[in-house]
Each structure stands twice: as C-alpha cells, then as structure tokens.
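Morning. Coffee machine broken again, so started the prediction first thing and wrote up yesterday's gels while waiting. Chain of 301 residues, entered below exactly as on the submission form.
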Amino acid sequence: MIHDAQMDYYGTRLATCSSDRTVRVFEVREGEQTLVASLCEHEGPVWQVAWAHPMYGRLLASCGYDRKLIIWQEDNTSWRSIYTYTEHTSSMNSVCWAPHDLGLMVACASSDGSVSVLSYTAGHTWEAVKITNAHNVGCNAVSWAPAVTSGGLQQQRLVTGGCDSYVKIWRNEGGEWVEEAKLEGHSDWVRDVAWAPSSGLGTSVIASCSQDCRVLIWTGDNGQFRSKELPTFADVIWHVSWSVTGNILAVSGGDNKVSLWKENTEGQWVCLSDSSKAAEAAASTAPSSEPQQQLRAQAVH
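Came back before lunch.
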C-alpha cells in the first residue's frame, strides 16, 4: 500500500513511500513516470515523504514505523542517505520541511507524543530540539507556518495534531518551543494538519482533519483562533493539503475520494471538485465498447 506521494518543487520528480519499506523516486516528463531510484533503508512501513526547497539541493526526507527519519540526497544521478535520526521511541508519523527562509530545518512527529525539530548547522551537522509530551498518547502530524518577520527576526511556528484530539500551535522562543495555543474542536484523533501559505493579510489559516470524519478550518492569530467546519464527510479523513496560493484545500479520506474546497465571498467553504463525481462523468461519456475507468484516491495508513 502506498501511504504518501509528493511532487518536488518543480513538479519533475515524484516520491512515494509504502508498506514494503521502500521510498521510490520517479522522473515525471510529459505525463509519463520513470522510476529512477528505490531507497530501501527503512525497516518497516514508510508513512510519509517530504521534499526540501531546491535551494538546498535535491533533498528528500522520509519517516516510518521503524522510528527513523532518513534524509536522502541525490548526487548527479545517484541517491544516498546522508543522515538518520533515531531519537524517538515509537513510530515516526509525519515529516515536514521548514520554509526555506528559516534555513535547512525539518520537523517530525512521533507516536511517542513528542516532536523533533532538526536544524543543519554551519559545522555541517544536524542538531535536534525536542518538544516532549506535545500530545498525550501520540502525535500524528506536523506542519510549519509560513515564514513571517517580526521585529527584524524570522518567526518559527509549528502546528501539530495528536491522538488527544487537540490541534496545538508552537512558537520558538530563544531556542525553546513553547505552546502558543491549544485548539479544541475535534472529538477523536487528529490525523493531519496543514498550515496554509501566507495570504498576505496577516491572518493564519490552518486545516485539520480527524478520525471523527470532520475537517475544520482555523483562522486567527496571537493564540486566538476560530473554526469553521466543512460539510460532513462519510468516513475518516486522513489528509489535508493546501494549494501553493493557499486558497484551495484538498481533502482525502477512507472513502477513497479526493475533494477540493474553496471559501466563497460569503465566507462559506464550497466543494469545487470531487474525484467520485469526476469518475462518474468520465464513465458516462466513455464509449460503451471501452472499459470504464474508475478514479481512486489512495488513503494513507
């Protein structure tokens, strides 16, 4: 089973990870995918992959059930692991690179309830700072806030989602991560969180999804957030992801459907597209002599 698939910054490389312990990298050209590398250093299912910004070279991070975060690098046409982080006691569920303005930094969330933030130093080493007990029972997702300058300094902020049903916002103060806000709205495990790219309006927008079959959109700042709920879904929601401009949200869940949502001028979130409807439309217009094709979105672990 494939658990995650991510395009790189330029849209020419696709990385996938799966239950067979393998990370695969494909070259994407003119609608065709060509396998260029199979990375096999994980010892269990691999849950998530993430590309770093290209200004730091071609770097890919992966995390999995084996409690490992592995950072991979491509040199010319060859891929190799350059760093492995193993300081968690349970499954690593989520990995996310920081905005490139903040430097080469990556965060990972673990089922042991903690979050680690790794930074690449001038001495060419990786240093880790851990947010211990970020979530009771376990932490399922982590996402970075857009880089914002305040008082001449770049703010470092994170949002996490956990098995305690909370969405939490964290801020780096003098090298220590402190809890800025605890958002209560879900009634079951929070499966994913995604901080929207900056809209330029000075307001933060965060999407969260949960085992409770709900998607919440949080807006606000300075620890004060309010939420809006997307129309009810029929199954658990696994993933939420923003468009580059931050105004369209993609939602995928256990019903094997992907839907796209946008806020209208009245402040209501409306569905722009649904993969199941697209499949039905394609099937209805296909010639009867041709086999009907069904569009399916792969849900993650």
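The chain has a mean pLDDT of 89. Going to sketch it on the whiteboard this afternoon.
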